Amino acid sequence: FYTCNDLGLTALSRSKKWVEKCQRQDLIDKSPDQLYRFYRLCGKHFETSLIDSEGQSTVLKDDAIPTIFDVPSQPQNGQVKRGKETTKDDETERKGRKKIKKSQAETAKEDVQTLTEEEQHKEYLKSLFEVLILLGEQNIPPTGPGDNKQDGLGSSNFQALLEYRMNCGDEILKKRFDVNKECCSSAQLSQLIEVCEKCVRSQLVAEVKQNGFFSLLTDDLVKISGEWYLPVFLRYVDQSNCQQERFAGFLSFEGEGDALAENLLYEMTDKWGLDMEQCRGQAHSCSGTHFSRIKTFAAKLMERYPMAVLALRSTQTLNVSLADGMALSGVQLVMSTLKKIESFFSQSPLLQLELEHAITIFYSDKEERAKELKEICRTSWTRRHDAFEVAVEILEALLLCVDSVHDNEDMRWSDQVTHNALEISKALADFEFVMALVVLKNTLTLTRAFGKNVQGTATDAHFAATSLKAVLHSLKEVCDNIDVYHEFWNDEAVNLATAMEIPVKVPRSFLRKHQSESGALQPVSYYKEHLSVPVVNYVIKEIGELFCEDHLKALRCLSLVPAVIEQRKSTEPEEECVQVFKNCMPNAGTLSAELHCWWVKWSKKGKGETLPSSLHETLQLTDVKFFPNMLAALRLIGILPTLALEESVDVAYKRFQMYMENTPDKFKSKSLALLNMNYDIGYNLDSIVEVYMKTYPDREEES
Fold first, then answer.
1. For strand 145-146 and strand 227-237, is the pairing parallel, antiparallel, or unpaired?
2. Which one of 39, 100, 465, 601 has the fewest CB atoms closer than 10 angstroms to its CB?
3. What integer pLDDT is reported at residue 241 of this predicted model?
4. Residue 214 to residue 360: CA distance in whole angstroms
5. Whether the predicted pLDDT of 80 surpasses 70
6. Residue 30 has what pLDDT?
């Protein structure tokens, strides 16, 4: 048997031609990919001149097509045999077919017998890895769906595909099964998965190293097999000057404080092989009880690698990110309830219609606004820049809707739906929720436009970087006059609560802990000290950390985008901002002259000329290679976690979300997740096999 030299489209289409030429009717309905991976054709159909010998293996030349056939001639002159009439030609044809089939089976066994034990073991491992990679790419759990045998894989998906391969003629797998009565044990499958993870990550890290600087991004903690893990992404710009973001895997999140931070850094540097000296940015999405530990990790990372500037992550809006990080009971009640609301109404279009009906009732005299709110509620509104403003506007409608669902007078909803509605209703009818929502709305209104702009177009993000000082000034003005502002906020919350028939009171959890103070404590005073003041102070502090001076300078370097230059042609180049990258430039000594030439080139727009308006378009300019310092600066801007990616490359996080949402908890695997989310990275089976054999040399002896 012979195989092709490469796994390209040419080889796939050639496999289809072989089947047609060899008249293999049993394979005619197979796809080219199936033919290439799981079937082989006999060498007797090829001219000797088309066959090459490479070392110990025999392969076909790239243009090889079978032309020699030992089959009887077809009926001529349009004659057709009918019924069960037997002719001499029929008998000859049957014998010929039998001869061909027998020859193929015999040749397959002979081919296996000519391989050394080591070569057979490698082919066997390749078969296992091919099946595992196929399952991982399609997010099909290898151990599912019916793994009932404790000592083996039983009727698992992995075993089913191995049996399919054996039935299709994989003689090496057959031999293994005949000797051991199984192709792969559960223990060996775990080893295969571990090696796959190791190889995929090694390839990812090598790609990142090849392209220089990168940013480190993390997402909310996830629970897999009962343990907490931190999802990690890497953002970089590749050799073709395209922004890329890849999922790099999960880090075990066990421990506290500095010890946890040290463990995370050790695993990334020593186990994963990341060169953190090349890290130029970091961004984290975390909420709830784990936030303080993430902050400790971010601080340790900055302390060890000062160039890893803390930034906002583009997958989360600024206002939602700020609220997620506040460890205040009222704020966390708001955030957890908003997540429940999003999950609740995404279950069924009927629930969405129920909410829209409630909005119609409360906005009967404002049809245009009702229509706008309904449109907003059909999106993921709880994660919008104006999420808290929208929540306040539809709060009464929300409570009416969930109360109606919970009452279930027409028996339309299941017990689970009515239970979830009750949980949301209880939260919405708590004055602590109402007060916290009003405070968040009024405080974060001041940062909403800035947050939206900084994640918008290059022009918008550049403007945002220049406007932050005004935003901070407004926040500090609120802080200095918090007594006055809190009084207004308290009145708004009380009026809303009164309309919803919600009693105005101090949270019960606080009263239980401070029974001696409960008699004299007024709600207005409590919420000022425990909500309004901490919220405003936190927002000021956090924005200062997320947008430090170096981060703002990097964002202002978006002035290098031609459309921004043309728009601001009356101003001088912002060389002071570009200087933030001088240590990473190939020739910093010529920066001033090069920047001036770049500015002149793009400040004069030709008639009818459309200038590149995004960072992506600018990086793809053919002229950019003649401005090496500008290219270096643009590539560094490209890895800033704050800036939104182009739709075509913004896929890593979407794949991550799909995996976490669509995979049942019992089948989630930190190793297979990496394989699934990087299915397009390309695999070298020979390299994977070599890694496995080095990692588990005893397995070769067992085989």
1. unpaired
2. 601
3. 95
4. 49
5. no
6. 67
* Distance (Å, whole) CA 126 – CA 685: 6
CA distance 602 to 565: 6
For the chain, the average pLDDT equals 85
Apex CA 693: angle with CA 691 and CA 694, to 5°?
Answer: 65
Residue whose entry in the numeric block shows the structure tokens 């090598």: 206
- Owner of token pair 């966390």: 332
Provide the pLDDT for residue 515: 66
CA 58 to each of CA 10, 168, 457, 546: distance values in angstroms, whole numbers, following the listed order: 19, 21, 56, 60
pTM, 2 dp: 0.81
The CA distance from 628 to 632, in Å, is 6
Helices (H), 613-669: 615-619, 628-638, 652-662
Contact 674, 174 (CB under 8 A): no
N residues, the chain: 703
Q: Is the Cβ–Cβ distance between 461 and 560 less than 8 Å? A: no
* DSSP secondary structure string for all residues of 391-450: HHHHHHHHHHHHHHHHH-TT--S-HHHHHHHHHHHHHHT-HHHHHHHHHHHHHHHHHHHH
Query: What distance in Å separates the CA atoms of residue 203 and residue 290, rounded to the nearest whole number?
Result: 31
| pLDDT single digits (tens) 572-623 | 788 899 999 999 999 999 999 999 999 988 988 777 788 999 999 999 999 9
Q: What is the pLDDT of residue 8?
A: 42
